[in-house]
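To: structure desk
From: M.T.
Subject: fold request, one chain
Message: Could you run this one when you get a chance? Sequence is below, nothing fancy, just the single chain.
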Amino acid sequence: MEKVEARLTIEEPNQVGRRVDQVVADSALPLNRSQLKAQSAEIYCNDRRVKASHPTKLGDRLRILYVPEPDATLTPQKVEFGIIYEDDDVLVVNKPRGLVVHPGAGNFDNTLAHGLLFHHQKEMGDPFDTGSTDSDSAESEFWDDEVPPLAPNQRAGIVHRLDKDTSGVLITAKNAPTLERLQREFSERRTEKVYLALSYGVPPRRKGQIDARIVRHPQRRTLFTTDPRKGREALTAYRVVREFHVPVGPDRSQGVVGLVQKGGKRASPVPEREKRSYALLVLRPITGRTHQLRVHLASQTCPILGDPLYASRESARDPNFPELPLMLHAYSLGVRLRSDGALRVFHAPVPDDMLATIRQLRSWHMAPSGSQ
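Reply: Done. Structure tokens follow.
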């Protein structure tokens, strides 16, 4: 199977002095330690071949040749997704909520990867038809000699991923040089990602950063949690766009009841109605860990509204929104394309149900006591 190349420069203090395989596994490169330890993997540090255990130094330039996880068995399937932009190098899609990006446990069909293969097959006349004995010649007729095609196990051109329940911008590559370039852009953190989220609860500050290492949950192994002593570095910048304070119950328009008379005596004030607080947030993930935004917001006691995995007990029983999908949307992605090297920013429209939820919160909102 053909090897592909990935590159990484050691630029951060927490990467220095660690094993190469640990640093690479903690990066955004699509590599795990088992792939690095395989006999077929080649690791170069400053153009000198090294072992996976080689310690890193500041400024080291890593180059890894490895065999990617196979997806050659994928067959094209028609899958619905929006197209934001397309040229000879990239396809930028608006991934709908509920669509899995790549096959995995419990999701073996009808993923975005299957849909990308179907789209490329339709566009190109299926130059990837490996069942044909003339597939090599078909590829050579379609592809320019200076722009090699993706290997069979890279055919979908997946560069990065979004969770199944997250909607929004996702960029994919249509040839090998573009795939390598985009992987490097993500691994070296030169992309600009912006997400929108609705949270249950409000962060303690209007603007700031969440710096909390992420580790796999010790009991629930499909989930993640924060741990200051171990795990992967994770950093998220956030800003509160708007707060919403909403009374609980069907009659949310009724305000606080004042003093009342009882038996000719002045009684105590009727307690203010119970409220729930929510926030519309702009999130900028500096790193790209699995479930990072969801775990970070949950760690601040303001989980994302509708999160089926990281909701607090209180938010899971929210009477205002008993059934709501995950309110997290990849709103924009800034990336430099191979064509001109200039930063291009792509946007995905906010989903209708998220807009409807924002409008509902605005209509229910009651300003806190003492606010203007």
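Reply (cont.): The radius of gyration is 25 Å. Let me know if you need anything else for the meeting.
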